[in-house]
């Protein structure tokens, strides 16, 4: 790829943004007040703002391999804390995607070196849902289902943060689990009942002020 193309694209993008509003970037520079925190996969095909039709300033984004939320990942923890406490977003979305290489790698019995500890987060999801997953004979369907269950478990990991629990107590913060289907371009709401999940996990994970 000729990277000069990127800078040419950037000039065109600036022109398109300022065409109707010459102050577009002046306004953008005043600050951000996104209402949604998006936690998704780093996969180059899952372009968060693009697939949702959102503009700069509308989405606070965290992406990593296979949209994992791990308690000792200071990066993810910082993003979530900042979004929930300082930006006061009202929605947290964990969005996985079918054909996720990270999830696929976690299904294989192979030493992947530095990736092992990261992918173990997904192996833990498999172990938690082993009964359901092993009952699915079709390997592709089992893979798709692990993508979905990984979304659910990572979203539950979001609920385990003290700042998120505080936001639940203070206002109507909502957690959502979505999947992007690369084959069709569809964004699918898994309609996970997080109120129920919250009830189930709070017995163990409750963190009061
Ligand atoms: Co992925």
Question: What can be said about this structure in brief?
Answer:
The protein is α/β, with parallel strands linked by helices. It is built from ten helices and five strands, in the order H-H-E-H-E-H-E-H-H-H-H-H-E-E-H.
General description of the model:
- The chain has ten helices and five strands.
- 50% of the residues lie in helices and 15% in strands.
- It has two domains: 1-31, no CATH class; 32-205, Beta-carbonic Anhydrase, Chain A, CATH 3.40.1050.
- It has helices at residues 4-18, 24-28, 48-52, 74-86, 101-106, 116-128, 130-134, 139-159, 162-170, 194-205; strands at residues 36-41, 59-64, 91-97, 174-181, 186-189.
- It is globular, with a radius of gyration of 19 Å.
- It has 209 residues and is α/β, with parallel strands linked by helices.
- A five-stranded mixed sheet has the order 2-1-3-4-5.
- It binds cobalt (II) ion.
The name of the CATH architecture of the largest domain is 3-Layer(aba) Sandwich
Distance between the termini: 51 Å
Largest sheet: 5 strands, mixed
User: What would CATH call the class of the largest domain?
Assistant: Alpha Beta
Q: Could you say which overall geometry the principal axes of the C-alpha atoms support?
A: globular
The total tally of domains equals: 2
Uncertain runs are: none
CATH topology of the largest domain: Beta-carbonic Anhydrase, Chain A
What is the oligomer described by this structure? single chain
Which structural class do you get from the secondary structure elements? alpha/beta
Small molecules held by this entry: cobalt (II) ion
Helix and strand succession?
Answer: HHEHEHEHHHHHEEH
> DSSP strand (E) fraction?
5-15%
């Amino acid at each position: 790829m000729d990277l000069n193309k990127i800078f040419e694209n950037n000039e065109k993008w600036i022109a398109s943004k300022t065409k109707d509003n010459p102050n577009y970037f002046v306004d953008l520079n005043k600050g951000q007040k996104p209402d949604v925190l998006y936690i998704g996969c780093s996969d180059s095909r899952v372009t968060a703002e693009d697939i949702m039709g959102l503009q700069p300033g509308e989405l606070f984004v965290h992406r990593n391999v296979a949209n994992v939320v791990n308690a000792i990942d200071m990066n993810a923890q910082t993003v979530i804390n900042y979004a929930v406490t300082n930006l006061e977003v009202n929605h947290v979305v964990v969005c996985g995607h079918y054909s996720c290489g990270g999830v696929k790698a976690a299904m294989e019995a192979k030493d992947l070196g530095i990736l092992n500890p990261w992918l173990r987060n997904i192996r833990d999801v498999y172990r938690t849902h082993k009964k359901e997953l092993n009952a699915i004979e079709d390997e592709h369907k089992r893979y798709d289902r692990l993508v979905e269950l990984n979304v659910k478990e990572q979203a539950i990991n979001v609920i385990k943060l003290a700042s998120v629990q505080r936001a639940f107590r203070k206002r109507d913060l909502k957690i959502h689990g979505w999947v992007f289907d690369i084959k069709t371009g569809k964004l699918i709401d898994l309609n996970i009942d997080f109120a129920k999940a919250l009830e189930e996990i709070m017995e163990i994970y409750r963190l009061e002020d």
